[in-house]
Every structure is written in structure tokens, then in C-alpha cells.
Specification:
Strand order of the largest sheet of chain B: 12-11-7-10-9-8-13
CATH topology of the largest domain in chain B: Dihydrodipicolinate Reductase, domain 2
Radius of gyration of chain A: 19 Å
CATH class of the largest domain in chain B: Alpha Beta
Order of helices and strands of chain B: EHEHEHEHEHEHEHHHEEEEEHHE
Largest sheet of chain A: 7 strands, mixed
Mean pLDDT of chain B: 93
Helix content of chain A: 25-40%
CATH architecture of the largest domain in chain B: 2-Layer Sandwich
Strand content of chain B: 15-25%
Number of strands of chain B: 13
Structural class of chain B: alpha/beta
Number of domains of chain B: 2
Largest interface: A-B, 30 and 31 residues
Strand order of the largest sheet of chain A: 12-11-7-10-9-8-15
Number of helices of chain B: 11
Oligomer: heterodimer
CATH architecture of the largest domain in chain A: 2-Layer Sandwich
Helix content of chain B: 25-40%
Largest sheet of chain B: 7 strands, mixed
Number of helices of chain A: 11
Shape of chain A: globular
Structural class of chain A: alpha/beta
Strand content of chain A: 15-25%
Low-confidence stretches of chain A: none
Distance between the termini of chain B: 41 Å
Distance between the termini of chain A: 43 Å
Radius of gyration of chain B: 19 Å
CATH topology of the largest domain in chain A: Dihydrodipicolinate Reductase, domain 2
Shape of chain B: globular
Chain lengths: ~325, ~325
């Protein structure tokens, strides 16, 4: 019996990839899609060969086991609470929400309803990250002393640059992936956050498009993370996700999207990279579907989502205060 | 003929002295080192005389190259300046701000010419990046990233590996990037840094966040924790574009020899495939001395880089933010 999945909103572009991953998973079935934007929702339902539902509640009344939520960040809470109330497991796009209070409400609602809440951190399923984590656990690099991360990208535009929907700009968008890897690979929490933040690349924006975060971890490791939308429109790829680790016994680097062809075209698109690496979303969606099918705990929790988001929120506080901020908030 | 004394016959001192010997009208005549054998070996290579007393080494030369361990820079630079000698000093200018101030004062009072070895300005990739930025190619500079990755220098017991003496990777090596950043992006206002200096003498590594008065943010990475070949990279994201450079991608010549096991030098000296930046730097200094013109990297530039590097060290030592106010409060 396959796991039946419903999708709530395609506002976040990752939804299309998740839908394709559900489709290609032999143990899962994409049952239906709801979307505030009915035109988009109908298109997607047609593209992914499933039913379009006119409202979230209609989708939740359908015969599904779980939902994948890809609304605007600020609407994650409402969708999650509804899904939990309907007894559906939830995988929620990152960042989990835009406030600690919202994230906690989501965690509590799912716990009370006895459903799982997974945060969509696909970088955990990068083969390079999985191998790096294994090597760290084997002690190959000794104790982790320092980490340097980047998750840079292009400005995605749309609701991502409208703080009432996104919760901020580049910093809320691009802090959580690598922060999650840092937490996961060290097993430690972030103890303090300092952030230099600005709007460098588009003066019309109402949000930040550049952030440089410095962190201390509870186990003593030091770290920095560049979460800027600093890739220009004609950069050969969308961005990157990297993590460098310095340990007492060795160092390692993870570059999750380094597998690429250099493609040069004669038309205006010019030069671009064609990635041939693993699709990280496959591992993510498969893990979610497995947990739903078996009733096992979610491999990445709502709390993981909250702790990573908390670093982004602390970065906004730090930038506003001009001081380092101590966690938890 | 300009006669030159070398004080400090380590890797960098011998390289600088060899470069000066290549310049027409320059001759290294005296070599002093606290280790007499090192002075004798270097003197023989350079065609110079080994001198055990530093004051007599300075006595009858026109120029002094100061390339001894950092904490001794101030005494030798001041001694040379006060004797009316022009001074070429390896970076960093000094170990402390107080020492740096003494050098600036001595050089000002003596009216001699002084250059400090902030050689990035002569590395073609850094000079080209600065020129691109100044030409407006990428608009206003925003997010800047620099990396300088090396193995731990010196051998066991080397002064490089003693944080009290060398200032670790941040003062000894990352100061190159600090100088280039100040040259290219103007004054710094805020520094926040984390480092592994407490892990010396095993390794050091630092990550520094710098905010500049004109707005740019820089992420400055330096490693003495690597086990591979020396390498650097930088990128500057501006309002109208992006510049990237990675030293591992630009070799115009690669040579491999079957069956050789060449060991690495005690201090790895990066080279550029075209004319040596270190020779360009030496030539620029000699030109300034000869023509009595402003040298390309002044002692005040070197003092500013020292201030920024020491601010990063202090931030990493204390965990606190270091801010540069209107007055010099970063000591």
C-alpha cells in the first residue's frame, strides 16, 4: 500500500521537485494538490497527474496519509496546524516558519495530534554530506574545531523579497540549510550569533540580500556562514551549498553541487553549469515517505527546523543591535 | 651603487636579498642573523659578508632589509632609520601597536624611505581585481571573500608556531589580505573574528568578519591547518557583478618530475608564473629610494594593516566586537 501524499501550495519552487520525487517513488502516490493560486494549482495537478483540490481543507479530507507544505514561509504555521488537526503527517519546506512562536506551535500541534513533522533539509541527503558525516563519526578528522559554510544564490524575487511572507530576505532564506548541517555534523547547538547584513545587490529591495554570520557552538567550534544572494543573474548556476570543516586530526570540504558540466551556448544564455550530481530531494522525499509508511520518527524534526531558523532570527537581531546574540532566543 | 644589509637570514630574508641582488645598482653586502651559521650560509650564497654585530652590519650600507622574527622588527627598523638607512621590512610591521608606532615615528623623524612587504599589491591577480573594482566593472563592492590557505609554517619549536611571537595565522599571514582589503575598500569600522590560536603550536585557523566604512562586508579566512599545497582565492560581489579568482585554476605552467621527492621549504613562498611579485616589490622600493618618491606601500599603510590584524586577534582572543572609532581605539 503506497503512502498517499497531498501537496499544499506550489508557492515555493521546490514543490515541483518534491512532486516529481513522490511520483518516482514506487512506495508513494501523489494524490492531490491544493493551492491558493488556483491557476497554478490546476496546472501543477495536470503536470503531475493528480487531483486539484479547491481548498486546503478539501485536500485534507481526501484519502491521504501525509502532506508536503510549500506555501510562503509565513503560511507554514496555518497549513501545518490544519494538517495536524486532520491527522496528516507533515513535511514542511524550510525555513520552518518565521518566528520561534510559530515553529513551536507547529511542533506542539503535530506532537499533540500524534503525527510526524519533518523539516525539508535535503542537504542532509547529499552523498558527500552523508560520507563526510560518517568520516567525522569515525573520528577521521578528530574533534571539529571550525566550520566555514556558504549557501549563496541569486535573488529569487517574488514573495521571497516580501518580508511579510518570507520573514526577511537572504538571511532567512539561506541560513538554515548549512546551519542544520553544522548542528547535525557536530551534534552541538549554536550558542551565539553575530551577523553583518546589508542590501547590496538591488537597491529597490525592502529586505536584506547579503548576510555574513559568525557562530560559536556549544561544543566550542567556531563557524561562519555566508547566506547572501550574491550570485548575479548571469552566474553559470543558481548558487552553492558548501561546508568546510577543520578538525584536530584533519580537514574536509563538502561542495554539494560541484558535479557539473561547463556548457557554452551560442545564444544569449551564454555559459552555464549543468549539474550531474545526485538529486538531494529524492533522498529527502524517500526518507519522509519511509517514516510515514513505517511510523518511525521523522529523520529531521520540527525542532531541527526551529533551531536552524532561530539562528537566522538571531542574525536579524544581531544586525539590528550591532551586537552578538546569545541562543536560545 | 646602493649597498644593502640583510637582518634575518630565514626563508623570506634570503629570498628578498636575492631579489635585490638582481636589481641593477644594488648589492647585498652584509648579512646578520641571530644564528651565526645561518648568516654565514646566506652570506656565502649572496656574495656578502656575515656580520655578528647588527649595528656594524648597518654601519656602511644604504638600505636595511629587516626579515627577522616579527617581535624584533621594531628594534632593527628603528635602529636602521635612526642611522639614516632606508628600510625594507617583511610583514607584519610589528607584533604590537606600540612597536608599530615606534617604527612610524622613527621613520618620520629620520625622513628615510620605508616599504613593508605587503606583496599582494604586486601579485597580478590582486592588482587586477583592484583595478577592475576601481574601474567600476562590478559597481559598488558589497560582499567580499578572501582565503589564504597554508600548512603550519616553520618546524617544531619555530617562532612562527608561538602565538606570542608570531601572532598566529591572523597577524602573520592574513595581514596580506587585510592590507589588500584596506587598499581596495578603504577604512574598516568593525571587526569580529574567531580563531584557533589556542591550538597552537599544532595549528591555527581564523575566520574574520570586517565591515568597511564605505559599506562592504568582508569574510577573511586564513589557515595554518592545511596539509595540501598553498592556495588563495577571493571574490567580490558588487551591485553590478561578481569577480572570482582561485589560485588553483590559473597555472600557466605545471611541471612534474618522475621519481623526485622534493620536500617543501620550511616556509612556502607562493610564486606567480610571470615576473616575481617579490621582485616587483623590491624594484618599486628601489625606485622610491632612488627618486625620493612616495613608496608604494608606506609605513602608514603597514600600520593600518597591523591595526586591523591586531583588532582581529583581539576579537578572537576576547570574543568581543572591535570597533574603529574616530580615534585609534583598536589597540
Amino acid at each position: 500500500m503506497p503512502v498517499r501524499i497531498g501537496m499544499i501550495s506550489f508557492a515555493h519552487m521546490h514543490a515541483a521537485s518534491y512532486a516529481a520525487c513522490v511520483q518516482s517513488n514506487p512506495n508513494a502516490l501523489l494524490t492531490g494538490i491544493s493551492d491558493d493560486d488556483s491557476e497554478r494549482g490546476k496546472q501543477m495537478a495536470e503536470a503531475y497527474e493528480c487531483e486539484y483540490f479547491g481548498s486546503v481543507d478539501a485536500l485534507l479530507e481526501a484519502d491521504i496519509d501525509a502532506v508536503i507544505i510549500c506555501t510562503e514561509n509565513a503560511l507554514h504555521r496555518d497549513a501545518t496546524l490544519r494538517a495536524a488537526a486532520a491527522g496528516k503527517h507533515v513535511m514542511c519546506e524550510k525555513p520552518i516558519s518565521i518566528s520561534v512562536e510559530d515553529a513551536q506551535a507547529m511542533i506542539n500541534a503535530c506532537a499533540d495530534a500524534g503525527v510526524g513533522l519533518m523539516t525539508a533539509f535535503p542537504c542532509r541527503y547529499g552523498p558527500a554530506y552523508i560520507e563526510a558525516r560518517r568520516l567525522v563519526q569515525q573520528g577521521q578528522v578528530g574533534d571539529i574545531l571550525a566550520m566555514k559554510g556558504t549557501n549563496r544564490g541569486r535573488n529569487p524575487g517574488g514573495w521571497f523579497v516580501e518580508p511579510q511572507f518570507s520573514g526577511g530576505g537572504a538571511t532567512i532564506d539561506h541560513t538554515v540549510h548549512i546551519t542544520d548541517l553544522m548542528r547535525d555534523i557536530t551534534g552541538d547547538e549554536v550558542a551565539s550569533v553575530y551577523c553583518e547584513m546589508d542590501r547590496f545587490f538591488n537597491p529597490q529591495l525592502r529586505c536584506d540580500d547579503a548576510g555574513l554570520i559568525t557562530m560559536d557552538f556549544t561544543g566550542g567550534a567556531i563557524a561562519t556562514l555566508d547566506c547572501s544572494w550574491s550570485r548575479p543573474p548571469h552566474y553559470p548556476t543558481w548558487g552553492d551549498a558548501t561546508l568546510a570543516v577543520v578538525g584536530t586530526e584533519g580537514n574536509l570540504w563538502i561542495d554539494l553541487f560541484s558535479e557539473k558540466l561547463h556548457v557554452y551556448q551560442n545564444d544569449a544564455s551564454g555559459y552555464s553549469w549543468a549539474g550531474y550530481g545526485a538529486n538531494l530531494d529524492d533522498g529527502l522525499v524517500d526518507a519522509f515517505c519511509d517514516a510515514v509508511a513505517t511510523g518511525a520518527p521523522m529523520p529531521i524534526t520540527g525542532r531541527d527546523g526551529l533551531k536552524a531558523m532561530e539562528v537566522a532570527l538571531a542574525a536579524y537581531q544581531s544586525a539590528a543591535l550591532g551586537e552578538a546574540v546569545t541562543l536560545p532566543l | 651603487m646602493l649597498s644593502i644589509a640583510l637582518v634575518g637570514a630565514g626563508t623570506m630574508g634570503r629570498m628578498h636579498a636575492g631579489n635585490f641582488n638582481q636589481i641593477d645598482g644594488c648589492r647585498v653586502t652584509k648579512v646578520h642573523d641571530a644564528l651565526e651559521q645561518a648568516a654565514r650560509t646566506a652570506a656565502a650564497d649572496l656574495g656578502a659578508e656575515a656580520v655578528s654585530d647588527p649595528e656594524s652590519a648597518l654601519a656602511d650600507v644604504d638600505i636595511v632589509i629587516v626579515a627577522c622574527p616579527t617581535p624584533a622588527h621594531a628594534d632593527y627598523c628603528c635602529m636602521a632609520a635612526q642611522a639614516g638607512k632606508h628600510v625594507f621590512c617583511e610583514k607584519p610591521l610589528a607584533r604590537t601597536l606600540e612597536q608599530g608606532e615606534r617604527i612610524v615615528k622613527a621613520v618620520d623623524e629620520a625622513g628615510v624611505s620605508m616599504v613593508v612587504g605587503h606583496v599582494l599589491r604586486f601579485f597580478p591577480e590582486y592588482a587586477a581585481a583592484t583595478a577592475e573594482i576601481q574601474s567600476g566593472a562590478i559597481g559598488k563592492a558589497g560582499m567580499v571573500r578572501t582565503s589564504r590557505i597554508n600548512t603550519l609554517p616553520g618546524g617544531p619549536g619555530s617562532w612562527f608556531r608561538d602565538y606570542e611571537l608570531s601572532g598566529g595565522v591572523t597577524l602573520d599571514m592574513v595581514i596580506h589580505d587585510f592590507d589588500w582589503l584596506l587598499w581596495t575598500f578603504g577604512k574598516a569600522t568593525t571587526v569580529y573574528s574567531r580563531s584557533l590560536h589556542r591550538h597552537m603550536p599544532d595549528l591555527d585557523y581564523s575566520l574574520t568578519s570586517v565591515r568597511f566604512a564605505e559599506g562592504a562586508i568582508a569574510h577573511v579566512e586564513g589557515s595554518w591547518a592545511d596539509v595540501g599545497a598553498f592556495r588563495t582565492s577571493f571574490e567580490i560581489a558588487g551591485s553590478n557583478g561578481l569577480i572570482e579568482h582561485n589560485s588553483t585554476e590559473n597555472a600557466t605552467l605545471v611541471v612534474q618530475r618522475r621519481g623526485s621527492q622534493d620536500g617543501l621549504a620550511a616556509t612556502q613562498v607562493p610564486s606567480s608564473p610571470s615576473k616575481s611579485p617579490y621582485l616587483l616589490e623590491a624594484e618599486a622600493f628601489i625606485e622610491a629610494v632612488t627618486n625620493s618618491t612616495e613608496p608604494p606601500v608606506t609605513v602608514r599603510d603597514a600600520f593600518a594593516a597591523l591595526e586591523l590584524a591586531l583588532a582581529a586577534c583581539r576579537s578572537a582572543e576576547t570574543g568581543e566586537i572591535v570597533r574603529f572609532g574616530g580615534d585609534a581605539d583598536a589597540g
